[in-house]
Amino acid sequence: MHAEDLLLMSKMHLDQAEVFLSSSSTTSLSLFEGELDNYEMAQSGGLGFRGIKDGRIGYSYSESLDASVYPELINDVLSSLEVMEEKEELFDGKISYPQVNKKELIPANPDDVLKSLQKLEKLILESPQIAKVPGIYYQEIVSSTRIHNTLGLSKTQESGAGILYAMAAAEKEGEMYTGKGVRIFYDFSCVDLEDLAREIIEDTLSCLGAQSIPSGDYRVFIDKEAFDSLLGSFSSIFNAELVQKGLSLLKGKVGERIASEKVNLVMAPLDERAPLASSFDGEGYPTQNFNLIEKGILKSFYHNLATAKKEGVTSTGNASRSYRGKVGLSPNFLVLEEGEKSEKELIASMDKGVHITELMGFHSGLNPTSGDFSLPASGYYIEGGKRIHPVNQILLSGNFFTLLEDILELSSEISSESLSSRTPGALIDKLSIGGK
Amino acid sequence: MIQSTARRVLEAALSGGADFAEIFLENRKNNSLQFLGGEMRSAISGRDYGLGLRLIKDLKSVYSYTNDTSEENLLAMARKSAKVLQGEKRHQILNFDVKKPKNLNFIKCNPGDYSLKDKEGALRQAYAAAMAYDDLISQASISFMDWDQEVVIINSQGLWVEDRRIRSRFAVSAVADYEGEKQTGFMGPGASMGMELLEKYPPEEIAKEAARIAVTMAKAGYAPSGEMPVVMDKGFGGVLFHEACGHSLEASSVAKKNSVFADKLMDQIASEKVTAIDDGTLPGEWGTTTVDDEGTPTRRNVLIEKGILKSFLVDNLNGKRMNMQTTGSARRESYRYEPTSRMNNTFIAPGEDLFDEMISTTQSGLYAKSLGGGSVNPITGEFNFSVMEGYLIEEGKITKPVRGASLIGKGHEILMKIDAVSGDFALAEGMCGASSGSIPASLGQPQVRISSLKIGGRNAR
After folding, report:
1. Structure confidence at residue A1 as a pLDDT band (50, 70, 90)
2. Domain co-membership, B243 together with B361
């Protein structure tokens, strides 16, 4: 596929046009009971096409990259722009771009990977209390993006990362308990398998005999990885399009206090910890670091070209794009800045409370429009600053906007298992727990 | 795809000693529209196209996929996959028996014959109906999507099956603002139908129902928290069985004994009131396909009969590990996914209890009227799902509406606690996500009462 040919051909039908090409190559291995279970390798992608005619924008896409699909792509854009009413402009790229700290994924030899997965399984099973390892999964992904348009924009970007995930299961009194561990890496040979195995064993065994607790309001410490997932699930409350369309309760609140003064939230795509760093966004606009919340005060929303224009500001470089869909908005790396006290100190400070280590059910148990959440959780019951017993079969419920105000402290440790954010653990004054 | 190419690709695939090789070729046209805030936010047509190649040797599988279906690329991909198995060629390819089974779904008005412009009116009507429903409605998002998926499944044992899956879905999400808070309501019917979907489910009706839920929830109080009896409404109430049991009966987890129900065949795993079925053959239903994604005809599988576990949902590869035949349950989102056993249209069959009696004999509980999605850990049996619209049951009567909350339990405990099943049955539609991607699946049931479930509201009782 030559993007230039399609752009040239579209000149007869469209005033402006843009080709967005994305492709990825993945290698995955999984292990079950000492044997290779599944090996997957793939190279695939697609072409997103958008064009402007008489001021109207239209979209189409194809995964078939044969030149025979050009007429269909152009026809589909013409029928799309007859109907679409969004005001969008293409970007010409005449601007300076930031330097990003690019990390290269070093591909591992599949035979070596298999041996490592076998070793990891063995290390986990060395603990006599572990009943089985339900699965170990390894994946390398390298993806590339290219944007070309008739205004002269031409950008290319490649990024890659690897992920290793393993589970373990143990039994106590007829009930099964599971634990897991994750590592994100660029060089698989640097992953410490002993350390990961220890973590998985600890995660599995520490919940043995877990029980529910009576329903009520509790002081809660949410672990960094769980809080990272929770924050990520509500990040669309800062999405300028949703704000403008009345789908975020933060509308009209820039400059107001919306969170505890301990909260500093930064959009940080240029942070060196960002695994999938890019110097430009889905519209080809430069990415940048900026504050969303500073000492509890809402400073900004995140924008693309269209939402920025509506508000009379400049884009923050948060246009998201997949070849299948229209330009939207997404965070490109969120960092909630860490606090001063350690997890240990914060947990020890709880007289009676719950230390939440895992939250689940994110796709159905929360609603960013209302801010409400009700999520299955597990962790430990704490009394006098000490772990009393493991807890499961409870639901943690509340409202995210209220939670932001109720943050008492953030931990000095920060999460590391997510591709999209970094978050400390959070001590929350009060949340509802549904249990016995 | 021409037979000689398929033969050469499968030959190359078997060259490393695989027992079995399979091609899944997909060509799918998607159309989608979204109307939001008084404007057509997007209207996009596009084509998915690609080929997945699976090799099986013993219990190992090697999967690869590509968008480039030139013979040269496919042969290179097949050889590279074969090399992973590090063996010598052992099997021959049987002659292809080309089949194009009669489609179980009858499409009256193929959505592909209608332009985006033709579809626009329905979205505008629904938007107007939602906004006009009540002064509290502040926003509505309307979407309509349809697709036409053509697949060819070819394997080294001579199978050559062609199938076509056309589906349409219309969805409305409404937002109500009340006293500085926002609440939402959702309705999203879908079917293996064309434009006639909109006759069965008129857009204004869908919009009014979504708006009604949003307004009711805006004025509602918090749900209770703690353990109590729950009456699940018919239709989407089937999410309870889907999560608490359905996933744990899929060979995907049973074959490796990663399920609380492994080794439980012919045991009583549910109360005698429960008969549960997965049926991929119901004409026009959202989860129906004529053949599964390994080319096996779908069928009606009785999973639980009067509480006794009768069958799992099995695909070919997991069936090999379990020494069981496929049940026609192999599914995948697209060529990007290796197939595995999944649900099609899964439901609890009608019983003999009366809904009114279920309510009147409940002293204090929750009536779950509209439901959201959920998830499960099949190893521990722990599941969750969300209630979007609930009502308190107080002294045998449905009383105040309460806002959404999640419900949890363990599948192997909850199934035994189903103590009433009504005769008033319905199916509903959802997207189900698992290892082989996001697929359309129907779920259903009559009204059902569970004697005790844990609810995560914000009012401790």
Report:
1. low
2. yes
